[in-house]
């Protein structure tokens, strides 16, 4: 927030945003395709993380040879 307060930094950030918009329009078909790919990758990764299967803990192989007694103090 403090960066946006100073007029010089605000002018610099607005200049960067304007030049970015101009470059997007200058490279129109390619830049929009790249931007769409970035957005698709973002949503695909979010979907993959939400639908990833839970990890199942392996069963204790020694459980069939001895009973584990709970450790109580």
Outline the structure in words:
- The structure is a single chain.
- The protein has 73 residues and is mainly α.
- The protein has a domain at 7-50.
- Helices cover 66% and strands 0% of the residues.
- It contains 3 helices and no strands.
Offer a few descriptive terms:
about 70 residues, mainly alpha, elongated
Blueprint of the fold:
Elements: H1 2-5, H2 7-26, H3 28-51
What's the total count of β strands?
A: 0
Radius of gyration, in Å, reads 27 Å
Low-pLDDT runs of 5+ residues are none
Which bin fits the share of residues in helices? 55-70%
Oligomerization state: single chain
What is the average of the pLDDT values?
Answer: 87
**DSSP strand (E) fraction?**
under 5%
Shape: elongated
Largest sheet: none
Secondary-structure element order, as H and E?
Answer: HHH
Short précis:
With 73 residues, this protein is mostly helical. Helices cover 66% and strands 0% of the residues.
């Amino acid at each position: 927030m403090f960066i946006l307060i100073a007029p010089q930094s605000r002018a610099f950030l607005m200049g960067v945003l304007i030049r970015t918009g101009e470059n997007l329009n200058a490279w129109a078909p390619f830049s929009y395709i790249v931007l769409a790919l970035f957005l698709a990758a973002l949503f695909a990764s979010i979907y993959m993380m939400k639908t990833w299967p839970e990890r199942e803990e392996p069963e204790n192989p020694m459980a069939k040879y001895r009973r584990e007694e709970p450790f109580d103090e």
